[in-house]
Amino acid sequence: GRSLERLRDAMIEEFGSSFVETILSERARMVGYLMRCPHMLSSHCHDLEHLTLSHDLHEVAHVLSVVLKVCDSVSVKVQEIFNGIQRSKNASYRDPGLRGISSGATDKMCDIQVFGFACNAIKNDVARRINEKFLEVALDVHGMIPEVRIGGAKQFLFDTGVIVCTFDNRYE
Predict the structure, then answer these.
(1) How many other β-carbons are positioned within 10 Å of the β-carbon of residue 45?
(2) How confident is the model over 4-42, as pLDDT tens digits?
(3) Most CB atoms closer than 10 Å: which of 28, 42, 91, 144?
């Protein structure tokens, strides 16, 4: 029991780490954006009336939305299966001819719930990792931002808002 929980947690942790560090940071160029953030935050040159997502984050937003859509579709499918099993289980209590279904249905429900948990855990872990990266920039933990200017701050707020809102099911 406890060993399987630790294995599950380790697998989710490994996926989140690999996805954010390799797929988003390196291949989708989030690391380039994060490296340019100190310059962006200290610059004046942003059109405050027409903010758009920074170029470096377009691929990040796309890849992230694809992964989150997959997680959501699996969660929906799990819920549909779970509801179907629950209906079968309830029917077996009312109909004596279906009593054998209930024990197998309970086992299936437990197995299926694991998939729903995994999807939510993956989304939460990825969100936490991305938020930590943005927070590291915002807190200037490396002391690379000489002075924060309003234009750069608004662009950073807009960019982080778009990425964070992706987790709120606002894909398009």
Answers:
(1) 9
(2) 889 989 999 999 999 999 999 999 999 999 999 999 999
(3) 28
Count of beta carbons in the 10 Å neighbourhood of residue 132:
10
The domain spans of the chain are 2-44+56-168
Which are the contacts of 17, defined by CB distance < 8 A and separation ≥ 6?
129
Determine the 3-state secondary structure of 53 from DSSP: coil
Tell me the pTM.
0.80
**In b/e form, how buried is each residue of 160-170, taking b as 16+ CB within 10 angstroms?**
bebbeebbeee
Answer whether 138's CB lies under 8 Å from 157's CB. Answer: no
Residue indicated by tokens 């729903």: 116
Identify the CA nearest to 38 among candidates 153, 162, 163: 153
